[in-house]
Amino acid sequence: MNLSGIGMTSQRTRDRLIQRLYDQGITDHRVVDQIRSIPRHIFIDEALSHRAYEDTALPIGHGQTISQPFIVARMTEVLLASGPLERVLEVGTGSGYQTAVLAGLVGKVFTVERILPLQQKARQKLRLLKAFNVRFRHSDGGMGWSEEGPFDGIIVTAAPENIPEELIDQLAIGGRMVIPVGGREQGLYILTRTEAGVEKQFLEAVRFVPLLSGVIR
Q1: What angle do the packed helices 29-37 and 69-79 form, to 10 degrees?
Q2: pLDDT tens string 174-215
Q3: Which of 24, 141, 162, 174 has the fewest CB atoms found within 10 Å of its own CB?
């Protein structure tokens, strides 16, 4: 597998994507440098690899998508805004692209995926990238991973109608959760858990696949 890429997946093409992220307001250089280092083309089907460095979501099968790079950068930047994080829960491994971005920026990533074939592919790609600080679980993502909590950060890559209480309960005091919420109309929110409760802030309108219950083997 060619990690450096050629043609439409070359470093030159990838650098154009990086410039677009800066142009759209991403300011955290750690996040941008991590995205620059990740070969996004290995996380999608070869037939779509020529579109890997477009700033757009792309299908990865099973009704799921690999998120738009700007959204990955935005959510990661917001999650890390309060400082370094040691333990982060990702709900919705999907292609593993967001997981790979997180792996280079936090201590440990605990990632949950309900669709087993997607998880297996993601595990293979992350092993290829030597992201050895990632732990995987095949389960209903809305329930999180309580045995490994509490988490300093939680990032959710699919949209529930309402914020699952189970995820709030797994957030450490002072921890932050970035999550899209809603049905036909969705908003991206940042939640901070405090001693007094949960502070919730709207960030922007977004469009994510829905967060579904149950598992698929």
Answers
A1: 140
A2: 999 999 999 989 999 999 999 999 999 999 999 999 998 888
A3: 162
